[in-house]
Amino acid sequence: MQALLPRPLPRWKWYLGRWLGYVTLGLLYALLLFTAILLIADAHAPIPRDGAALVKAFLLFGSLVPLLISLSMLGSGLFSAVGNGVFMTMLYGAGWLGGMIDKLSGPLGLKEEALNTLHNLTGIMSLLMPADALQRKMTAELFSLDELSGIVSMNFSSFPLMDINSVPSNSFIIYGALYAVVVFTMGLLRFQRKDV
Amino acid sequence: MNVPAIEAQLLTKEYNSGRGCRDVSITVEKGEAFGFLGPNGAGKSTFVKMLAGLIRPTSGSAALFGHPIGTVAAKAKIGYLPELYRYQEWLNGEEVVRLHARLCGIGKSEADRRIPELLKEVGIGQRGRDRVKHYSKGMQQRLGLACALVNDPELVFLDEPSSALDPIGRMEVRTILERLKQRGITIYLNSHLLEDVEVLCDRMALLNNGEILRHGKVAEILNKRTSWHFKVGGYSPFLLSWLMEHTGLQIRQAVEDADHAEGGIAIPSTVEGSVVWLEAEVESEEQVGWLNALIIEQGMTLYEVARKKERLEEWFLDAVSGLSHRGERE
């Protein structure tokens, strides 16, 4: 980096170039992973073959890549390499934990007040790291749960991980996109002033 | 208008640790070779990184050929060899240089012509087709030099360019730098190798604890404290005390020094008979003539008189001795 940065390019181009490179690689990997998971799942049980649903599901699955890379690159401007790794792991873990608590809180039979507090906490966790919520949305789109809910009974109380009620709204998807844009911009501004 | 290659005004970088550099002002003219010296941790690399646009100054300003540091216009004119180089190990030497050429906007045909020439010039040659992970430190340093020169810069910043090289490699790098200087390229050299600075640089500055301690022309610095050697026959210890008392000058018998060849005079390890070398610190050449006359007047034989040229290493040690250094010794 020290040898390359003094080259005659503005720093924003460096940042954007690295971001695009990481995102391209990440998306290719995500496509490979997505396809592999579907193929393996298909070998054991039928999976939806609706092209539109598959594309929407992959776009949601892939949307994690720019989100996580933007966050990680912002973290690299603020922390050391190890510190950034810890930061990202904790943040991703918090998002995942928030999602799990959200899914499992229903069958616990908690009082409404306690449930509200729990939902507030998991909401904050999802806002800080929307990855798990986007994954839930992806699952819902892949299985077209929204459309199926009018046709078949969607009572998942015995299997809360598939609970349609915990699927985030479209507004949350817009929030996720804005979140990624804001984090990317913050990372870019930070890199403009960063000492290398 | 004659714009200096480097013009820094009170350039300061402060870190919480107290390191960095403070109020450094230097001007380096086009075509000049400038040496930046200082003990470890003095702030030399911090300063050069500010000039190369890698770190932002806390205060002060600087320009390269009239363009503020860190701007694309300023960067377009420089080549930079960092001290802590780390090149892409999965690429070969040619590919690394080609990457730098592309980043500098050099076209493919120009790069195809220039890269083999550069690799040959820095001593990599055909090994440019080997992967960087198989390069020694010295080879990587040569590769770094090729990268720094790929855009035919008007100014090259070299941060310890010979630190990983063997004596032959150092000599080769020095020859390359001398060629660059002859071509009118401005050279900014951060180096612990005082000999390189002594041989190559026109002017230099000494940094200690982030502040410039001394600066000036290398030739003037090396000759500032003029000592002269006198080869005297028929010497007796009485002469030394008599001369010191009579002239008020600092005179001593020169001690054995195998490396002592300054000014073309080698001090012999043993005194033959009553022939000795005396060393006197004088303020003017008139005092040398006076000493000559006094020695002869005392009935002794004066075989040889020569000016002692002070070496940069002695000057450096003299300049920083007794001062605190915040470098590795802390």
TrEMBL record, chain A:
Q: Which residues cross the membrane?
A: 20-41, 53-74, 81-101, 172-191
**Which key words are in the record?**
Membrane, Transmembrane, Transmembrane helix
Q: What is this protein called?
A: ABC-2 family transporter protein
From TrEMBL, chain B:
Q: Does the keyword Nucleotide-binding apply?
A: yes
Keywords from UniProt, A to Z, are: ATP-binding, Nucleotide-binding, Transport
Which intervals hold domain ABC transporter? 6-234
Q: Which InterPro entries has this protein been placed in?
A: AAA+_ATPase (IPR003593), ABC_transporter-like_ATP-bd (IPR003439), ABC_transporter-like_CS (IPR017871), P-loop_NTPase (IPR027417)
Gene Ontology MF terms: ATP binding; ATP hydrolysis activity
SUPFAM superfamilies in the record, alphabetically? P-loop containing nucleoside triphosphate hydrolases (SSF52540)
Against Pfam families, the record matches this protein to: ABC_tran
Which family is it part of?
Answer: Belongs to the ABC transporter superfamily.
Protein name as catalogued: ABC-2 type transport system ATP-binding protein
Species of the source: Paenibacillus jilunlii
Lineage, top ranks: Bacteria, Bacillati, Bacillota, Bacilli, Bacillales
